[in-house]
């Protein structure tokens, strides 16, 4: 029975891929063409999500950063997948009640950073607790993957590999931990926000159109698969030189296939390229890699470095004008269940009013 008038809250960090997922082999199930590997981010780039199932709700309701969003994909296409997951968990848990979801990011929506990875991982963790499903890590990862592919890596902390899998139903396409957050705590991600506006082409469209239309893409899955092997070894050995080069080459390779897509997908802008040169110059001055740039489906730069070189990296991008915000994240732990609280539905004013309980 899902209706307990209780709220379950979970927090999860986003992740930054060192070897990227771009291109699907199955659109409906979010199955990737290649494996990928990432670092989970800490509370600086995280989402806290509360869920409550209640008979008092007449429909599912979703609030992100205080704004109600419809679960029909009208504002955010990932909400369609979210709705599908809600119906799925309700049917597995034999629950009939509607759910209230309240999600808050640790970074402002105006930062222009994707919150789908942390949001999906926090949601699945909270749903699992609310419905008493007792899902294992694999189950959570598979469910999260169906909301947003890259999100399946956020159900674990530290360094995480998403194996592409070969099964048609995706049963073997989920994330596993390569090393936990204590393995290399000096590693960090300095995020330089250069543009906060909504992207022209969604990642979902790109995952589908790039493999179909880019001649260059044919070489991408094997290149990325090799990269995962290189990065995994470099992480285990804490070999920053090998890691940094593999990260930069993979980002460039992915963005090359994006530009080669018809119609072209261009996420990087002049500021992104200026930051790439600033990192290149810094690495030349230091006669070795002290930082690596990487870009997801947007122009904001993720600069992977170690704490020892933090100041130099900040100094190197200081000269780049137009950086609106810098966010720093260390290696994050996996999702955390933050507990339960009573009577959210009434507190949110969404159900019929009851007299306040006597103390
Ligand atoms: O999971 P999606 O659909 O948001 O795809 C994002 C893919 C990249 O961020 C560009 C790469 C990655 O592996 O995170």
In short:
The protein has 359 residues and is of the alpha+beta class.
Task: Please tag this protein with its features.
359 residues, alpha+beta, Ribosomal Protein S5, domain 2, 16 strands, 24% strand, globular, binds (3R)-3-hydroxy-3-methyl-5-(phosphonooxy)pentanoic acid
Mind explaining what this structure looks like?
With 359 residues, this protein is an alpha+beta fold. The chain has one domain: Ribosomal Protein S5, domain 2 (2-Layer Sandwich), CATH 3.30.230.10. The chain has nine helices and 16 strands. It has a six-stranded mixed sheet. A four-stranded antiparallel sheet has the order 2-5-10-11. Helix 2 crosses helix 3, helix 5 runs antiparallel to helix 6 and helix 7 packs across helix 8. It is globular and about 65 Å long. The C terminus is likely disordered. (3R)-3-hydroxy-3-methyl-5-(phosphonooxy)pentanoic acid binds next to helix 4.
Indicate the percent of residues in helices: 25-40%
Number of helices: 9
**Rg from C-alpha positions?**
21 Å
CATH topology: Ribosomal Protein S5, domain 2
Q: How much of the residues is beta strand, in percent?
A: 15-25%
User: What is the β-strand count?
Assistant: 16
User: What's the architecture in CATH terms?
Assistant: 2-Layer Sandwich
**Shape descriptor:** globular
Poorly predicted parts: 351-359
**Order of helix and strand elements from N to C terminus:** EEEEEEEEHEHHEEEHHHHEEHEEH
| Name of the CATH first level | Alpha Beta
Coarse structural class? alpha+beta
Mean pLDDT: 92
Number of domains: 1
Ligand catalogue: (3R)-3-hydroxy-3-methyl-5-(phosphonooxy)pentanoic acid
Q: Largest sheet, if any?
A: 6 strands, mixed
Terminal Cα span: 27 Å
Spatial order of the strands in the main sheet? 8-7-9-6-1-16
């Amino acid at each position: 029975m899902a209706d307990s008038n209780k709220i379950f809250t979970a927090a999860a960090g986003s992740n930054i891929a060192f070897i990227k997922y771009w291109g699907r082999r199955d659109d409906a199930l979010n199955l990737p063409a290649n494996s990928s590997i990432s670092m989970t981010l800490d509370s600086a780039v995280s989402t806290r999500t509360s869920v409550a199932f209640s008979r008092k709700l007449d429909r599912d309701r979703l609030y992100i950063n205080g704004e109600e969003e419809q679960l029909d994909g009208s504002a955010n296409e990932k909400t369609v997948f979210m709705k599908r997951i809600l119906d799925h968990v309700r049917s597995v848990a034999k629950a009939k009640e509607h759910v209230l979801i309240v999600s808050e990011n640790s970074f402002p929506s105006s930062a222009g950073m994707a919150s789908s990875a942390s949001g999906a991982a926090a949601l699945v963790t909270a749903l699992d607790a609310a419905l008493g499903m007792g899902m294992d890590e694999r189950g959570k990862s598979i469910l999260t993957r169906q909301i947003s592919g890259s999100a399946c890596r956020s159900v674990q902390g530290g360094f995480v590999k998403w194996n592409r899998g070969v099964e048609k139903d995706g049963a073997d396409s989920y994330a596993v931990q390569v090393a936990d957050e204590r393995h290399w705590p000096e590693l960090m991600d300095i995020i330089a926000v250069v543009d906060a506006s909504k992207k022209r082409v969604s990642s979902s469209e790109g995952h589908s159109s790039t493999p179909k239309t880019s001649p260059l893409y044919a070489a991408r899955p094997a290149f990325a698969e090799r990269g995962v092997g290189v990065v995994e070894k470099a992480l285990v050995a804490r070999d920053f030189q090998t890691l940094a080069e593999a990260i930069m080459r993979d980002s460039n390779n992915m963005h090359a296939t994006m530009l080669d897509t018809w119609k072209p997908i261009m996420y990087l802008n002049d500021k992104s390229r200026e930051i790439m040169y600033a990192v290149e110059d810094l690495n030349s001055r230091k006669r070795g890699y002290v930082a690596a740039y990487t870009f997801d489906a947007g122009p904001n730069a993720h600069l992977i470095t170690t704490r020892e070189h933090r100041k130099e990296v900040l100094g190197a991008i200081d000269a780049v004008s137009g950086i609106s915000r810098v966010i720093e994240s260390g290696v994050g732990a996996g999702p955390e269940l933050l507990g339960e609280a009573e009577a959210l539905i009434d507190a949110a004013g969404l159900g019929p009013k009851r007299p306040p309980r006597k103390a």
